[in-house]
Structure formats: structure tokens, C-alpha cells
Amino acid sequence: RYVQQYCLKGDRPELFDQFCETCLPYSFTVYSNHLIETGRHRKWVELYLYNGIDPEYISSDEISLINKEDPSLLLPLYTRLVTDKIGSKNRQGYRAAVRYLKKIRTIYKKTKNIEQWDLYIDKIQNANKRLRAFQEELKRGKLIDAD
Fold this sequence. Notes:
Layout: H1 2-9, H2 13-22, H3 28-38, H4 41-51, H5 60-69, H6 75-87, H7 91-110, H8 114-127, H9 132-140
């Protein structure tokens, strides 16, 4: 807190960023809040990805704020979650992966990037074609056509 006040009074906010980056992981929450307050959402997402924080533990207020500003920034977080949930190799994980895939689809629709969504879902489906339960959950979630 004192370092932040010193840097802002001295009109050197980049010094505070450098300090927080140097002190990671101890300065994670302070730095995260600072990035949200200053509107640097891309850097905020990179911070969470770099530190390996599970996106399920991110505040829903922060997620909704970033979703309002630029929903495409959330794609790396959600794709990482999908990969983790599929990797759990159980039905509950597959259902959670489908929930996040629906969020990803919504983001792609908002950004009018449906072709990219089609490529992504095809890639996920083909990479996990041996996981019968996951394929069933994709069909149940209406993310792929039921043959």
C-alpha cells in the first residue's frame, strides 16, 4: 500500500508495476486489483494465466467486468479450464467442460467469429474422440450434431 502511494504521488505508475511483478506471488492480489482498477484487463488475464490460478476461483464480479469490456480476453482462461476439466476424465468434469464450451461459443458469437468456433469445437471433438462419455456430453449440450 505504501509503495503504491509513493509511486502514484511521484507520478511513476510503471514503477509500481515493476515492483509488483518482482514481488510475485506475494503481491498477486494487490497487483490484480491494481490492474482491474486501471483498466488493463489484458495484463490481468496474463497475470492469472502466468500464475496458474484456477479460473474457477476468480471473482464473478471481475469476470463480468472483463466480459463487459472485451469478452475475447476471457477465451484463454476458458480454454484452459476446458482442457483441465477434460483431463479429469470423469463425467462431472465433462459436464463442466461443456458448460465452459458454451461460454466460449457465446463469446465467439458476440465477436462474430463463428468459423473460429467451428474449428475449435472440431479440434476438441477430434482430440477426444475416444472419450465416449465426453462425446455424449457434447451431444447432450447440443454443441455437436447427434448422428
